[in-house]
Fold Triosephosphate isomerase.
Amino acid sequence: MRRKVVAGNWKMNMTPSEAVALVKELKPNMENSDVDVIFCVPSIDIVPVVEACKGTKISVGAENMYYEEKGAYTGEVSPQMLVDAGVSYVIIGHSERRQYFKEDNEMVNRKIRKAIEHDIIPIICCGETLEEREAGITLTLIKKQIVSALKYVSPENAQRCIIAYEPIWAIGTGRVATTQQAQEVCCSIRGIIRDIYGTQIADAIRILYGGSVNAGNALQLFSEPDIDGGLVGGASLKPEFSKIVNYQ
Ligand SMILES: O=C(CO)COP(=O)(O)O
């Protein structure tokens, strides 16, 4: 049985002091939940958020990472820095990074392999634009993203990764994918994993849905057979996040 995951992606929101206040507000309601809770936060918030989450079951994730170990890469954050700060997850290949920072499938793959090397679990994002959906190429595109993201990744390591299906047209728009649309793609992703790694890995890997998840739709989405939880943007910054984590 796969354990559900609810991860918040704070994006570029919350100053360090706001971040600590939000964690204090949310954490009492995270304790009795049956899911793995992850707060993925801006780099500058990592240290205070890790401190504020001490003694809870909440894990802290980063929203990005570079694939080099150290050196002259102004502005970047290395895997060792994340590990040393107490991070155990990292979002890789979010559509906003692909779109605004020109991250391509190859860079996404490099980052994933480097995260794994440092024992950081990558939350690997994939998803299509509205035009791509309307052109009927969603599944072809997702397959390309997943196959290239997991290139050179061993079965044991792939099993520990988390995949997040985030249709770009559903991100921050309030336009959530229907449960059928979300389930269909998550099921196909599991099929792609099965083709690469076999049934055992496919049955174990956790696949999330992201895109306008809120307290009102979480139960329905997370009840689908291939949806193992959510990657939540806007609603992760509000008290509503407690309801999503305790969706049952
Ligand atoms: O991009 C997302 C999570 O990574 C989804 O954002 P929203 O939940 O705000 O639509």
